[in-house]
What we know:
The complex is a heterodimer of chains A (189) and B (250).
Chain A: H1 2-10, H2 14-36, H3 39-56, H4 66-88, H5 109-127, H6 130-142, H7 146-153, H8 157-188
Helix pairs in contact in A: 1-2, 2-3, 2-4, 2-6, 3-4, 4-7, 5-8, 6-8, 7-8
Chain B: H1 2-16, H2 24-36, H3 58-62, H4 65-84, E1 108-110, E2 131-136, E3 144-150, E4 155-160, E5 174-179, E6 182-192, E7 198-203, E8 209-215, E9 224-232, E10 242-248
Parallel strand pairs in B: 3-7, 8-10
Antiparallel strand pairs in B: 1-4, 2-3, 4-9, 5-6, 6-9, 7-8
Amino acid sequence: MQRSLVERAATGDQQAFEYLVRQSADRLFAIAYRILRDHHRAEDALQQTLVTIWDELPRLRDPDRFEAWTYRLIVRTSIAQAKRERRGGLVVQLLPDDAVPGSGLTRSPAEIDAVADRDQVQRGLRRLKPDQRAILVLQHYVGLTLAEIADVLGIPIGTAGSRLHYAAQALRAALDADARTIDLEERTA
Amino acid sequence: MNAQHDLDRRLAAALLDGPSRAPERSIDLALAHAREHPRRRDPLAVLRKDPMNAQSSRFATALQPLPLLAVVAVALAAALGAATAGGFLDDRSGVVPPVATPSPTSPHASVSPAPSPAPSPAPSATATPAVISVDLIENVGADATVDITDLSGRLVRAGSGIPGDGASVPDGTVAATGLAGSPATVVLTWSGSPCDTTHQLTINPDGLGMVLQRPACQGDAIGVDHVLQLTFDRPVDPAAVDVTIQTVGN
């Protein structure tokens, strides 16, 4: 099904392209958001990627590699976007309130712990380099295997394995540093 | 191992947070772009580089239709040039001046060292150094080429190396390294931008000093690697190679 859509879109069928876009956009946006941690930049990255898909699709020889190719495009666009952002200065973001909006309900201790834990991991992710976040997103959010990650990033499997290892190590270090900071703040309070 | 699993679990949970629906605006703008840029028939589409094969091997790259066509074109041009110069009809073993090998799109151009001149007078005293054009392999961005002018006469082969992701050397510097198993080969790596295209490399008569000119690129400033492999007719110490990089057109 997707193969024929890709073939039709490659020859200029706009309806087929629209089907493909609607099939892929949510997943691509979710990946971009998790790499960039910013809604507007993720939106820009998605738009740029979709435009590139239309422009470059005739060059894709194997339609079965369409999905991997779109992952490659969104990852590269997001990393480039993140690097531009770093050069432009740090963007400070207000994090959303943890309260359940409008419900007036308070969370149970277990829920509060879970939210606190997710927040801590989110802070750790923000400390990573964009390409490190990208490889973790591909494995832990998209669920790709090491071979698929290597294919998407266009690198040997061994390189993908070592990048994954270093990204996890960097995240662990960031989490440890975060925990130490909190501990220090508690002790000085 | 448990700590790794614990981190994996926490990471997977944290990554579930966040939006999972794409904004309609991005989709609408992309569809509008498609409508405004309807696909025209591209008879050369089959010759263009497959975006999922950027890391293909040199052998596979050489088998791509475009390099093959370039090789055929170079062979035809060389045959035509030889015929024009009377090489096919003339039995005399005359002087062969350094031969320019125009190969504008071949990723692996090569030039044979000029044979030593025979005692007979040279038919042309205005021999120009060989110029080799190498199509660099790039993961992203525009096609980049390097036109190499070899004033040393020692260069026997030049080709693109395979770049990694991103830029591995500081901007404005060129790293010269050796190639395992090939003491006569020097690998030059420098960083550029996806929008820079035509480079000029001049190899000084000593074969060690080189000047690399690259275009000023005002576009997107994502760093990318350019990798060039130069093989000489004798072993070269990469540490002795001194490459000056110049940006032209500022």
